[in-house]
Amino acid sequence: MIGIKTKIEDVVKTDNSMIDFFNKEKIDFCCNGHMTVEEIAKEKNIDANDLAKKIQGAIKSDNSNREDIMNIDDFKNSDIKEMIDSLIIDHHKRERDLLFEIDPLLNKILSVHFARHGEELMKLHSLFADLKKELEEHFVKEEEITFPLMLENESPSQEVIKKVEELETDHEEAGDIIKEMIELTDWFETPEDACRTYVHTFNLLEKLVKDVFIHIFKENSIMFEKYREKGGK
Ligand SMILES: [Fe+2]
Ligand SMILES: [Fe+2]
User: Fold this and answer.
1) Ligand 2 is a single-atom ion; what residues have CB below 5 A from it?
2) Long-range contact pairs involving 144-151 (C-beta distance under 8 Å, separation at least 24)
């Protein structure tokens, strides 16, 4: 529970995603993390209790929509239309948001930590740019071309199967980029001297990668398989 005596750094330690809230509110969680809600409120000339409530509310609203992905069992038992809806809402949207969030953070830590970690961060920055391009273009292909074709052609035609295979190739390409990222960072392990933004960026990258893994699994191993079976293939 957040009170007026709560230190800002303690909020961030328990919930890294609050970094975005503090950035938006122009509250310095990095160098002034030791300050309490009361001290920050005094500095900003606002009511300390109101600020504490606002912080508490931000934690709650963030938690409320965090783990709402349809689980694998429910997904397996859905029809193609429900699967497509779930993939777009649970994964495309989530991953687009994460890509958007990670992009400036990665750029920031690249500048700040260039002296000591420039080599790794340059490579990571470049791999991330490749992954972002790959995924964003892949999502739009699915949403605008292949998924509608799958819905229109309940029994799969050669043309649609070919489109599905193209998506599977894209998945392999995205998977290869992710594998390089994992190898480079030793599964998003941060160095000893990493600041909170560094740790937060790596946590978000890990979250993105895990989501992409589940997403690809649901498409390749469940939905595409089910779709092919409809054609007796
Ligand atoms: Fe997808
Ligand atoms: Fe896909």
Assistant:
1) 219
2) 147/84, 147/88, 150/80, 150/84, 150/227, 151/80, 151/81, 151/84
pLDDT band at 233 (very low <50, low <70, confident <90, very high): very low
Confidence of residue 16 (pLDDT cuts 50, 70, 90): low
Q: Find the 88 Cα to ligand 2 centroid distance in Å.
A: 10
Looking at residue 29, the DSSP 8-state letter turns out to be -
Kindly give the distance from the C-alpha atom of residue 73 to the centroid of ligand 1, in angstroms, as a whole number. 18
Say how many Å lie between the CA of residue 91 and the centre of ligand 2: 10
Q: What separation in Å is there between the alpha carbon of 64 and the centre of ligand 2? A: 26
34 and 130 fall within a common domain? no
Which domain range does residue 207 map to?
A: 72-230
> Based on the structure, what is the number of domains in the chain?
2
pLDDT interval class at 121 (50, 70, 90): very high
The answer to whether residues 15 and 81 belong to one domain is no
What pLDDT, on a 0 to 100 scale, did the predictor assign at position 22? 81
122 shares a domain with 58: no
Q: Which three-class secondary structure state does DSSP give residue 36?
A: strand
- Answer yes or no: do 204 and 92 share one domain: yes
User: Is 13 contained in some domain?
Assistant: yes
Does 221 map to a domain?
yes
Could you tell me the two tokens for 76?
């397996």
Q: Same structural domain for residues 135 and 22?
A: no
